[in-house]
Design a protein that fits this description.
The structure holds two protein chains of two kinds. By secondary structure, chain A is of the alpha/beta class. Chain A has twelve helices and five strands. Chain A folds into two domains: 77 residues, Methyltransferase, Methionine Synthase (B12-binding Domains), Chain A, domain 1, CATH 1.10.1240; 126 residues, Cobalamin-binding domain (Rossmann fold), CATH 3.40.50.280. Chain B is built from 22 helices and no strands. The chains are: A alpha/beta, B mainly alpha.
Chain lengths: 218, 388
Amino acid sequence: MAAEEAAQLYQAFVDQDPAAAIQVVERARSSGVAQAQLFDALYVPAMSALGGAWASGEIDEMTFTQAAVVAEQIGSFVLPPAAKRDTGVTLVLGSMHRDLHSITKDVIASALKESGYRVNDLGVDVRPTDFLERLEETGARIVIVCAEMLATARAVSRVRQMFESAGKDDVVILAAGAPFAADAGLAREAGANGVITGAESALKLVGRVAADLADGRA
Amino acid sequence: MPRRSSQVLIAEDLARGGQTGAAVTACYEALAVDDREPFAHCLLAHLMLDGDFYDEAIAEATTAIELDPDCSPAYLALGLAYDRRGGMWDQSVLVWHELAEVVPDLVTAHVQLGEAFAAAQFEEQAVESWQRALELDPTEARATYNLAIAALKHEGMANALPGFRKAGELDPSQDDLFFALLGVSVVPDRPVDPAKVRADRDSRLGAAGLAARADDLFAAAELARLVLDEEPDDADALAIAAYTYLKQEATNEAMACALRALASRPDLPTALYTLGVVYSKRTGLSRHAARVFVALAKAAHTQALSHVLLAEALLGLQRYSQAKKAYATAVRLDPACVRARFGLAAVHLTEGSHAEAEWEIRRAAYYDTKRQGLFWKLYDEYAEGGGE
């Protein structure tokens, strides 16, 4: 079936018929081929056939070029979804009060957003009350607090105290920044539940925490 | 304009010939005769820098500039010495600024100035310097890499990646990889005339590769076509055709030819290269690009850039530690691979390792400036009076 549809797609390219090409794609999709598979199952063999037809002289240069234009037009119908699916997990992130360092925070925020997390970035120099306020607004249960100086890293304990005083004992605080990477004990002292050492570490740790929260384990 | 003594001319010849020790001795002999000759001090600064004697290089370059404030190669040596020594960013900014004043159209001076600003945490001024460099030369890869790093710091990897890819396309090393895979190392000194090429497959393919190397894409395509007319499934000819389409921004035609080539030879490096580059240009095909570049890195494991391409695809998939390994392999294979160094810097930044990132950028800058042979270009211009 897939080979037959790929041949039909190739023919639609050569016939310069984008509507027919889209119909082939839709038929394949309705027959159960997932969006993520359409490119490999349909588009790649059709393009390979197109290259073969040009190489053998079955189609001339002009037809090749026009067929490539049609292939371009239907590209968006067969490409795998670019963005990752919304995880539905909301988190709050910011650099600690009196800490103006933003690079670690920005890199982590971007990586998490790209992976489908709903990130509320409070920026730099964020007071513990601002973390609490946004937590209550969004219903987030994960907070990432960044600090690049020893003094501000120690002050993360104020965020934990603020959450506890508001009855938010179950909020997961993840600490990020050089002082925490250098001394894991610092995070424990500050009441953080884990340490993020970079973008990849953020993805792994937040993924694990989100799964635990969903299972009711955290 | 000061004149060069015969001792300096001897030192120059020795230095150009790579005889560093003898050149240093000759410089000191020149200075024994006349210690106020800027050429000798400037040359000595360059030689000291080559030997990693930064403080000595700084002293000699400073003396050369004091003797003649228009001595542009001395500014270059001084700036590089400050940068490589590290921790002297304020002086470094001043020197690169001076060089940009002395030689306003020197693109590298603006790039270096930006790097010095960035190291001193003046991000806005850094970006302005790199943008100035791109105004002078829109194909300046290093300025584009630096802008991508700046984007990474403020907007994350997703927004920085297009910048890295753009810089990669501007970087001549990417085309060099294709020709290394093809076995064409030198640019032909004469244009390839398809009509004069012997009518056999190997001669035509060889000539097609040379024509592509010389950027004569039409001749290359014509020769590949002649091979395909006789054997339509010739994977090598299809791969060359794919490359010529790629270079003309006809990415779908390139994809079609590369896929056809790989249908008969699934591990053909030249076709893998073109297909991977086509995939990496498209949003949503990062996984496909990574798959193709994994195959390329296996098929061409001694080529540093094949690992760089894999690393960049892995960055698009947020697999930072795997990307780091691929970049590290590339740097091990070619320590002067500027693209790998900037990539490694990007991964270090995602890990919060800022000092390591800066170190990689400094190394990239050093190798890139060295690759350009800028010292001798400025030196010769200065000797001819161009610096006046």
